[in-house]
Design a protein that fits this description.
It is a single chain. By secondary structure, this protein is an all-beta fold. The chain has 1 helix and 33 strands. It has a 22-stranded parallel sheet that branches. A hairpin with a 4-residue loop joins strand 28 and strand 29. The two termini are about 30 Å apart.
Length: about 425
């Protein structure tokens, strides 16, 4: 189906839509208000979170859309945990800063486990704590910014994940630096994301011990796609000398993937890499690598340039929003949209194509000299429904080929909310 920019998102009235309830969370509802809304929600519901500070959120066995609604960015302290999202459902998190404080909850800022459904995370920042020196060695390692385990597929757009540094120590165990993203098995795509790993812990007194390794910017087992990302490995910790000398810890790779037992595959397009440096004194550890395919893993470097799409995440009916497409001047831009997600790596498009097979598209025209085109729109009525989510992705064409942006999600909400 083809539409013009004038009918942008008006065509949703023609689509078969699932009924979704809307839950509004206000700061005055208390710090546990997001969790209360999650517990009350059914699969497919939308939770709008107004600015404020909220406590840890746990989502299990249902796909939900948890969306920041207004500025400043809402803060979730204590982390977000997602598990057991069923096949055919989508969990969406958009617009939050999530932290995990040492004094309250020594844990990872974002954890997802055992999900057969899709994860779609956009415009979020995850900050995990550094390790704690002391007798409890379970807390010496820096925590990963965002960690996935047994998740079928995930998409990250304009997200930042910061791992904590390992604890320094005197005559005791030093901590390993936490990775930015640890994605595990499954298929994963990162667009315009920032990953910063923590440093390895150092020996802070004269002792014959080695420093700890820095974390990875991002790591995964099976398949990973990275477009327009900044990925930084952590530096290794410093060693020390006593009767004999310890070594500096190894620097972390910007991307590490696969294993000797199970090869992985990485597709990369226009990323910036900063590998961690090996810790020094007296013997330096090894520096990390920009991209480290372990064993027989395969690294596919894509040609072309990274493209960008940013859309207003929440718009009320008859309210105004905009879609912003970024690329190179003179490229012909299209906007694909769908009401469901698919995960389809496509070398011909230099991308992971996200809209489901039943998609429509809108011709936006040529990008101007600035390389950025802004398309304003007014959200149209949604057949009496409370809310509907649309997944969009820009396709750009020039004489050298075709490239696609990362996906972006728009949720249109009835003006009563």
């Amino acid at each position: 189906m083809r539409a013009t920019a004038a009918t942008l998102f008006g065509l949703i009235v023609l689509a078969p839509l699932a009924i979704a309830d809307v839950h509004v969370v206000r700061n005055t509802d208390g710090v546990q208000a997001v969790q209360t809304a999650v517990d009350a929600a059914a699969s497919g519901d939308v939770i709008l979170v107004q600015p404020g500070s909220y406590s840890r959120v746990i989502v299990a066995n249902k796909g939900l859309s948890i969306l920041a609604d207004g500025a400043p960015v809402p803060l979730i302290v204590g982390g977000v945990e997602v598990r057991d999202i069923p096949a055919g459902e989508v969990f969406v998190l958009n617009g939050f800063r999530v932290s995990s404080k040492n004094s309250e909850n020594f844990d990872i800022a974002f954890v997802a486990e055992d999900c057969s459904g899709e994860l779609f995370v956009e415009n979020c920042t995850f900050v995990s704590p550094s390790g704690l020196a002391g007798p409890d060695t379970s807390k010496v390692n820096g925590r990963t910014g965002a960690r996935l385990s047994n998740v079928q597929s995930s998409v990250w757009n304009r997200c930042t994940a910061i791992g904590g540094s390992g604890a320094n120590a005197t005559f005791s165990q030093v901590g390993i630096g936490g990775s930015g993203f640890s994605l595990g098995s499954g298929d994963h795509a990162l667009f315009d994301c920032i990953a910063v790993a923590g440093y390895g812990g150092s020996i802070n007194d004269i002792a014959p011990l080695s420093g700890a390794p820095g974390g990875f910017g991002a790591s995964f087992s099976d398949f990973g796609f990275f477009s327009g990302c900044d990925l930084t490995g952590g530096n290794g910790g410093l060693g020390e000398c006593g009767l004999f000398c310890g070594e500096g810890g190894d620097g972390g790779d910007a991307i590490a993937f696969g294993s000797f037992q199970t090869p992985g595959e990485a597709w990369t397009l226009n990323n910036n890499y900063v590998a961690g440096l090996g810790g020094s004194y007296p013997i330096s550890g090894d520096n990390g690598e920009d991209v480290n395919p372990v064993g027989a893993s395969v690294h596919q470097v894509l040609q072309g340039s990274a493209k960008h799409l940013e859309i207003s995440p929440v718009v009320r009916v008859f309210g105004s929003g905009q879609a912003k497409v970024g690329g190179d001047a003179g490229e012909l831009a299209y906007l694909f949209y769908s009401f469901d997600l698919a995960f389809a790596p496509n070398l011909g498009l230099n991308a992971v194509f996200m809209p489901a097979p039943s998609f429509g598209f809108i011709r936006l025209g040529l990008l101007p000299e600035s390389g950025e085109k802004i398309v304003p729109f007014t959200a149209q009525p949604i057949n009496g429904l409370d809310a509907v989510s649309i997944y969009l992705q820009a396709l750009l064409i020039d004489g050298s080929g075709i490239n696609m942006s990362g996906p972006s999600a728009l949720t249109i909400v009835d003006s009563a909310f």
